[in-house]
Structure formats: C-alpha cells, structure tokens
Amino acid sequence: MGEEKLDNTVYTIRGLRDLADLARSKGDTPTATWASERAAAMEAAFESAWWYGQDTDQYADSIDLPDDGVNDNTKILQRHWIGVTPMDAELVREGQVTRPLATDDHGQLALAKRQEPCYSGEFGLYHTGTGPTSAPEGNPGPTCDSAVSTVKSERSVFSLNTGIMAVAEGNFGRLGVDEQQRYTTGNARIQLDPSVWEMPGAMPEIAPSPDFEANIDRPLYDRSMVLQAWGTYGTLWPVVHHQLGVSPDLGRGQLAVVPQVPDGQSRVAGTNIRLGGGSVDVTAERGGSTVTTIVTRHLSADLLIGHVLPDGAAVSSVTLDGEPTDAYEVRSTARGAEVVLDAGIGTGTSTLVVTFS
C-alpha cells in the first residue's frame, strides 16, 4: 500500500469534526475553530485526492508510492475493505445536516460496486476484492473493473467489514434486501443461524468464506476469534439509527427521530431504546401516500420528529398530533429528502403524519 491510507484520512477528518463538536459544547471556541478549519481543508481536498474513478467507481485505498522518495500522491487501488470508510463516516458540521464524507454521487456509485461479486459474498464484504492483479497468485474470482492491483485478493468476510458496509448503505438511504439488509442479515446469520454458527449467540471475527473455511474445520492455532463485539455495530446501528432514525444529542438536551421504512416493509418499530437515563419508543409506518412517525419519550428532550420521503415524493400535508401544520422543513440529505418538524421539549407521545404525492 501507499504511504497514506484511506481509512486513516477518513477517520482523522471524522475525529476533527467530533473534536470541534465537543469543544463547542464546552464553550471552547479556539479548539472548535482550529479543528473545524483543519477538517474543512482536508474535506476540500478529499475527492480530488482520493477518488480513483474510471470504471472502478471506487476511492483509492492509499496514495503515495512507498518506493518513491517524494510525496507523489499517486492513487493506488487494491480493492481493500477500507474503500467503504468514506461512506461510513458521518460528519457533524455546525449549522449543517449531518452527512457522510463521500459525496452523494460517489457514495452511491461506490456502494453499488461493492455489492458486486468481486467485493461481496454470501455473508458480506470481502477483506480484499477480486479483479486484475500483477500478484503471482493471479485473480481467483470475478472481475468488476479494469484496474490492475499489485496484491492478491482475500475473499475472507470479516464481520467488522460487513458491519461497516451495512452502516454505509444506511447512511445513503439504501435499506433494501439487496442493500443494507444483505449485510445485516449476513452478520445476523453467523450469530444466530444454527446451520452457520460456531458458538450459539456469538458473532465471530470471520464468516465462512471462499478463502476462509469455517473455524470448526481449521486447526486450533489457525482459527479466527469466536466472538467480536464490534461486528454488532453493523446490526444494531442500521436498525436504531437508519431504520428507526434515532439520533440523540442529549448533552444539549436534543433528540432527532427521522425513520426510514425499508422497501418491502410497511412498518418498523422499537421500544425501550436506551438514551442516557431514559428511553424512547419509535414506530414508523408507510402505506399508500402516507408515512407516519410515532415517538414516545421516556425522558425530557427537545424532539425533532420526521420521516424520510420516498424518492420523488412531494409533501401534500403534514399533521402533528392530529393538528395540521406548515411549520415543517423538507431538507436534503444523503438518505434522501427528509420532512422534519420541531415537536418541542418534554416527554410523552408525539405523532407525525405526512401525506405526499
């Protein structure tokens, strides 16, 4: 790989944005300003520095050839899992809607490509995809682009990588059975499916894969970890944050609930979702030309309630707790158009109904 790595860059930007947000909450203006300016400069250079383009529809894994004595900024594509990180990292920018680092166009292209068989298998995302390569081992699998890598593929499905892919899909509103649900199901199966699991209820580090047979068939010294908690990021966060739309900012006394019902479903719901010292219940429904969000707060918070609109839909009417209102906003996000409305500070149940055409 090159000297500068994609995931290091992505999460440095994310870290700077988080630092700025924390500093603002504490009234530390100098730190907030420094971190925001540094992040903004890196973001402005990101797409031109990292988008590999051509027929790959991917970001480079790294830049700067390691054998070159100068910082040549050469883009290197080796099809590693870290190519998903620009779509995974959501950035909090003051006064703006939170959205991923990747642009909408590039994010959609890159995620669609990662669903292809050169990058994904039965249980999720490969560590390193297949395609043309100069490595002696050659290419053992499908080809999805014409770029020539210098390393061999590794068709091992790590639960962490699959989890990051599931989250990235949700950040761009891609919740379908062939999109986010493909990856949440992959991680859930290796934890809960008796035909696949290794220890009942445990999500292993690596799923059975073309280049990694099940642990039970491997020597004891060559097995992956039987339980890794971080893969659960890819099953819980997609449901709570994307499908149910829960986004707390309790340090400021704020809570946003903007769900998106996955295609093929009419309802998604969750109860006793823990937030600080309290909890929230959420029900989201979609039917005909109406979407409904019902939120019950078991804690006092300033609630922004909303719903993601179907593609191309235009708002016809909005009611909050049965009363018509025009105090709503339709905002553009990476997930799609969101209808949002301030439901005020307090506890109890709030019901938003949006009719669209």
Short account of what is shown:
The chain has 357 residues and is α+β, with helices and mostly antiparallel strands.
Descriptive notes:
The structure is a single chain. By secondary structure, the protein is of the alpha+beta class. It has two domains: 4-234, Alpha/alpha barrel (Glycosyltransferase), CATH 1.50.10; 246-356, Golgi alpha-mannosidase II (Immunoglobulin-like). It has helices spanning 6-25, 29-50, 85-88, 104-114, 159-171, 180-192, 233-243, and strands spanning 4-5, 62-63, 75-76, 90-91, 99-100, 120-121, 124-128, 154-158, 206-207, 246-249, 254-257, 267-275, 278-287, 290-308, 315-320, 323-324, 329-333, 336-356. A hairpin with a 2-residue loop joins β13 and β14. The protein starts with a strand and ends with a strand.
Short descriptors:
2 domains; 7 helices; 18 strands; 4-stranded antiparallel sheet; 357 residues; Immunoglobulin-like; alpha+beta
As for the number of domains, it is 2
The CATH class of the largest domain turns out to be Mainly Alpha
User: Helix/strand/pairing class, anyone?
Assistant: alpha+beta
Helical proportion, percent range:
25-40%
Question: Proportion of β residues?
Answer: 25-35%
Rg? 22 Å
What is the makeup of the main sheet? 9 strands, mixed
How many beta-strand elements?
18
Give a topology summary.
Layout: E1 4-5, H1 6-25, H2 29-50, E2 62-63, E3 75-76, H3 85-88, E4 90-91, E5 99-100, H4 104-114, E6 120-121, E7 124-128, E8 154-158, H5 159-171, H6 180-192, E9 206-207, H7 233-243, E10 246-249, E11 254-257, E12 267-275, E13 278-287, E14 290-308, E15 315-320, E16 323-324, E17 329-333, E18 336-356
Parallel strand pairs: 11-14
Antiparallel strand pairs: 1-2, 2-3, 4-5, 6-7, 7-8, 8-9, 10-11, 12-13, 13-14, 14-18, 15-16, 15-18, 17-18
Helix pairs in contact: 1-2, 5-6, 5-7
